Amino acid sequence: MSIEYQLHPLKAVEAAAMFLSLHGKPMQYMGLLKLLYLADRIALERMEQPITGDRYFSMKFGPVLSSIYDLIKGDRVNGALPVWERFISRSGYEVSLKGNPGREDLCEEEEDIILEVYQSCGHYDGFVLADLTHDFPEWQKPVPGNSAIPLPVESILKSVGKSDTEIAEIQREAARELYLDGVLNG
């Protein structure tokens, strides 16, 4: 059984909006995707759970948060598109902030991670960030004809130094949370 999380649309919007607000101007959407991935990766290392709850894939330009990438493209994702489009817009290869969703769903530690990621990497071009993520052990280069390879959370956890025992406990906790989300929101 693999570790699965459920996308938290408002939390994902709040995290993206925080990055865009810190940036102060439109941002390449690839850059935003990489910053969100970096934040989720650090959250998995420190908090043993991601900020966004998204699914990950290895793609040509590095790891990608699947549902958020779909939202950026304007695709419907489990009712999240209206929330996304209310606060974030896309024009060509850039995304910009339309309004402030606040930070009600982000905890202080998540906000600190987002700020840390932005301060260390927010000034980089999206392609530079993509190159940086190619150095992560969990990223796999897709073979021609296959644009995306699922990137299991377990691979990310191993890459950030979690032991098999820790990963098994994280898996149990994630399964409990997924079940409770289903019961409470199902």
Explain what this protein looks like in three dimensions:
This protein is mainly alpha-helical and 186 residues long. 53% of the residues lie in helices and 11% in strands. The chain has one domain (9-185). The protein has helices at 9-23, 29-46, 66-73, 81-87, 108-121, 126-133, 153-159, 164-185; strands at residues 27-28, 56-59, 62-65, 88-91, 94-97, 148-150. A hairpin with a 2-residue loop joins strand 2 (56-59) and strand 3. The protein starts with 8 loop residues before the first helix and ends with a helix.
The largest pleated sheet is described as: 3 strands, antiparallel
What is the domain total for the residues? 1
| Span between termini | 21 Å
**Outline:** globular
Number of continuous helical runs: 8
Strand content: 5-15%
What's the short story on this structure?
The protein has 186 residues and is mostly helical.
Task: Give the arrangement of secondary structure elements.
Layout: H1 9-23, E1 27-28, H2 29-46, E2 56-59, E3 62-65, H3 66-73, H4 81-87, E4 88-91, E5 94-97, H5 108-121, H6 126-133, E6 148-150, H7 153-159, H8 164-185
Antiparallel strand pairs: 1-5, 2-3, 2-6, 4-5
Helix pairs in contact: 1-4, 1-5, 2-5, 2-6
Jot down its keywords:
8 helices; mainly alpha; 53% helix; three-stranded antiparallel sheet; 186 residues; globular
